[in-house]
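tool_log.txt
---
The assistant was asked to compare two proteins side by side. It first ran the structure predictor on the initial sequence, then on the second. Raw inputs and outputs are pasted verbatim so the downstream comparison step can read them without reformatting.
(1)
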Amino acid sequence: MIQIPRDGEIALVDDDDLDRMIMSRVLGISNLENTVIDYPSAESFIDDLATRNESGHIGLSLVLMDVNMPGMSGLEALEHIRSVLGLIDLPIIVMLTSSEAGADMEKATQLGAHGYLAKQSGIDKFVGVIDEEFVNV
């Protein structure tokens, strides 16, 4: 189980509006109490993260990011976060995808993802997975 500080936000990065809406709902009814902010692209998240980094206050407890996005993929964003922005200790990055491809899981781990979570079908099942994997501290 991964411990998520209550005092930070959860960033949800996914290009699919419906997926972001569903994930926001899942997080809202899960045991996590954090505020959720969403980003429609990796680029918009990277821009905001760079601004947060410059201010000296990241303010994130968890980042949930889709792997497959147009433009910058989740894996490319993760690499940028770790190498260009230098945020090696960004609290947690969990890659989301509808694919459980072993190559994606391996690449995410190599790039510094703290975990890999496959999208689930059904809100109740997804809430159960979130509540099993994450707990607020």
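(2)
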Amino acid sequence: MNPEIVETNLDDYKKLVESLKSDGFEMMVDLTVVDWFRKKEPRFEIIVQLLSTIHNARKTIKVFVNDEDLTIPSITQIYPSANFYEREAYDMFGIIFADHPDLTRILMPDDWQGYPLRKNYGSGRIPVQFKNAPKVD
């Protein structure tokens, strides 16, 4: 299989996904987010991978999300399997998928503050004390 990468903008994203579905890309394989913190602007890149078993082909769609509102159209109505991928992207990165049927946290508790996979998210520390080791302050 020869994957092809298609870069698009937010305005054309949903139309592109719909046209690829009608062209025979019947399966959404993956949807993920890349955080380009301090490397690129806009910071967040959404990557969607589609598969056509009829044509034995793959397409990768890349679209950047504006840092100010972090909103992108949901493709759950086109590919129902996008539901959980979009919820994970929301939960881990704070990306908002407009018109998603149930955009709630899926991995973290509902009252969790922040988005753990953002590169500027603080990494917490819990001091560990071993038996017979000197106390650490």
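---
observation on (2): The first helix runs from residue 10 to 22. The chain has one domain: 3-98.
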